[in-house]
Amino acid sequence: MPAVSEFRASEAATPRHDWTRSEVEALLDLPFPELLFRAAGVHRLNFDPAEVQVSTLLSVKTGGCPEDCAYCPQAQRYDTGVDAQKLMETEAVMEKARAAKAAGASRFCMGAAWRSPKDRDIPKVAAMIAGVKSLGLETCATLGMLTGSQAQALKDAGLDYYNHNIDTDPEHYGSIIRTRELQDRFDTLEHVRDAGLKTCCGGIVGMGETRRQRAGFLQTLATMPAHPDSVPINRLVQVEGTPLHGTAELDPFEFVRTIAVARILMPKSMVRLSAGREQMSDELQALCFSAGANSIFHGEKLLTTGNPDVAHDQALFDRLGLRAMQVTVDAEGHDHGGTVHADIVDQPGRCVA
Ligand code: SAM
Ligand code: DTB
Ligand code: SF4
What we know:
Layout: H1 4-12, H2 21-28, H3 32-46, E1 51-61, H4 90-102, E2 107-112, H5 122-133, E3 138-142, H6 148-157, E4 161-163, H7 170-173, H8 182-194, E5 198-200, E6 203-205, H9 211-222, E7 230-235, H10 252-265, E8 270-273, H11 282-290, E9 295-297, H12 310-320, E10 323-324, E11 327-329, E12 335-337
Parallel strand pairs: 1-2, 1-9, 1-10, 2-3, 3-4, 4-5, 6-7, 7-8, 8-9
Antiparallel strand pairs: 11-12
The chain binds S-adenosylmethionine (SAM), 6-(5-methyl-2-OXO-imidazolidin-4-yl)-hexanoic acid and iron/sulfur cluster.
S-adenosylmethionine binds near residues 164, 167, 204 and 234.
């Protein structure tokens, strides 16, 4: 273990891709105030800590999924009361995207309950992406596993980000999902990167994993060929009918620790405080922002479950002095996201296209 001063300097400097599990565990084990102090320092060196990127989710194809993800209300095999719906029409998606933009979102994320899209689905999704992009929003999609040519077609349609999560520690993965391997997910992420798309990749905590397994989950994210541009940390939303319903609740401080360590390991990534906010107090969310979370899902619904209402989030931002990150999309469709901390000289303008 390096000396404290050495360790702090290296955390904030160039992102590392060689974190060991024991180093990550040591961070998770730090006294809580020390961990928050370190994470907040890394956050400030890389971002304006008052800015939070805001995305809105829409389920464009709901339920009826053949996979067995033990947390998911959209898996056909679990009786969760979710009504399966077919792929939405482009105009209906654009209507929702206009409303999301008017409510302050800068990115619109379209989710489909597929194991993987069929090639015949791609032109329909491409039309949605092009439509949403034309409104001046950043675009994100999460459609399951992709082939290389599917990823390229989505990129060509104007997709900015692709969300595909590893979900949990490789050791724990097999007790949560049996219908596809973790390697399948790595393959999709490779196709996404190769197509020039930005990656959004994280997972879920509170699924009965140990702290050591949370370390393994974070280590896996931080040692991928490139850190994900965006790292969603979801707290399990327990849905009746799913196998994980009734799992012992995770200590909220463990959730904050997970956010803080994600911030330290992936200093230049957006760390998203994702699913589970509706079940969190304002104080817990404030701790997450203080620990380095700098993006959220906004709008009253995630995919099928609830999210805090817009007025509540606005009031929380006002109380905490936070503001939504502005993103402008220029004539070439390049997006310019957020203001970075004035001290950062190696990311001028952050033209991310
Ligand atoms: N079907 C695609 C897939 O699995 O990649 C895309 C949609 S899937 C719903 C996207 C992500 O939502 C999952 O990888 C998981 O991390 C998250 N998720 C799903 N159900 C959840 C729940 N009950 N609580 C927290 N996160 C959840
Ligand atoms: C992610 O990591 N979390 C979002 C988004 N990516 C697609 C989804 C959360 C889903 C929560 C359960 C639901 O609403 O169905
Ligand atoms: Fe299907 Fe995705 Fe839900 Fe798994 S997480 S059951 S793949 S919709």
